[in-house]
Amino acid sequence: MADELAKAVAALRNAKTVAVLSGAGASAESGVPTFRASDGLWEGHRIEDVATPSGFKRDPALVWKFYNARRANVKTVQPNAGHYALAAMERHWKEFTVVTQNVDGLHQAAGSVRVHEIHGSLRRTRCTQCGIIRDRRLDVLAELPMCVDCGAMLRPDIVWFHEMLPPDVWQHAERAAETCDVLLVVGTSAVVYPAASLIPIAKQQDRASPATVIECNLTQTEASAMADIGLYGPSGESLPKLCAELGIPI
Ligand code: BV8
Ligand code: ZN
Questions:
Q1: Reduced to 3 states, what is the DSSP secondary structure of residue 91?
Q2: Is 231 helix (H, G, I), strand (E, B) or coil?
Q3: How do residues 6-49 score in pLDDT, each as one tens digit?
Q4: 161, 217, 231: residue to mutate for ligand 1 pocket, most atoms within 8 A of CB
């Protein structure tokens, strides 16, 4: 790990623009369950039932039970050292962007400001009728929340499978990947698209100098083959280590 760490530090030292693609592993040390681990979120729930439009249509109460339970979990957790390290890095670089697949808001809670939530947010609800989006923080919601404006049923403002990502947010994410000198890929299995396509976008050869991709994960993943550098261990340890080596105060 030592020489990988040294390589990562050297790449970051020379970087003007840094982007991050984070996934559920970045929040694991905060106590937020990941998706595909044995205790993963999808356990006991088929993706089709709780994270697709058809599942919501079929049984909105089940979907809200799943999301209200996650809201309640996130309410009890704090950002971990990895989140704080990324927030410190943002203060160090002029151009530093976090693109997250996570919906838990922990990057922002740790102080990150430029955060693109490409899969939505547990905090927000969206009306199925009038489309109004409201930030409900992590307040307890009804079992079947209704829209105060038009009376229709609300849904979580989350991107489900087979749904388009919000075009404006996705554009920012693509731009961050296209223009970064270093892409930090933190805590993601890199199996979900189009999020995972940000890695090849960053490595696109037709750019003058493709980005250096640094993977921070417990294990190798689908992204590892595209990573130039691998920091394998908890992100709550590897990210603060990068800050320490770079002299970035957290
Ligand atoms: C779409 C919201 C277009 C729900 C989520 C190719 C192109 C386009 C689409 C597809 C494609 N191929 C397949 C598709 C369809 C699909 C897809 O990708 N399927 C996969 C499963 C094959 N994609 C879609 O449907 C997307 N939409 O394509 O629209 C379209 C539209 C209409 C018509 C045609 C096309 C929408 C995808 C968004 C789905 N929503 N989330 C919710 O969160 O409740 S995805 C869900 O998975 C979460 O967002 C999660 O973040 C994400 C990815 O998972 P990870 O974050 O990576 O988590 P995971 O558990 O898998 O991994 C954790 C990692 O952390 C592990 O590697 C582990 O080792 C590591 N780790 C653990 N602890 C630590 C750690 N690392 C470091 N430190 C630690 N301590
Ligand atoms: Zn409404």
A1: helix
A2: strand
A3: 999 999 999 999 999 999 999 999 999 898 776 666 767 888 89
A4: 161
Q: Do 54 and 176 lie in a common domain? A: no
| Integer Cα distance of 117 and 101 in angstroms | 6
Beta-sheet strand order (sheet of 133-135)? 133-135, 120-127, 154-158
Q: What mean pLDDT comes out for the span 140-159?
A: 97
Q: Where in the sequence numbering do the catalytic residues fall?
A: 119
Per the structure, the count of domains in the chain is 2
133 and 227 co-located in one domain: no
* Tens-digit pLDDT profile for residues 150-159: 999 999 999 9
Residues 142 and 231 in one domain: no
Atom of ligand 1 nearest to the CA of 190: 57
- Residue 62 shares a structural domain with residue 86: no
Domain check: are 223 and 134 in the same one? no
Six-digit token string for 67: 């999301």
What is the pLDDT averaged over residues 150-173?
98
How far is the C-alpha of 49 from the C-alpha of 227, rounded, in Å?
34
Which CATH number belongs to the domain containing residue 16 in this structure? 3.40.50.1220
**151 alpha carbon – ligand 1 mean position (Å):** 32
Distance 99 CA to ligand 2 centre (A): 29
Range of the domain at 57: 41-76+124-158
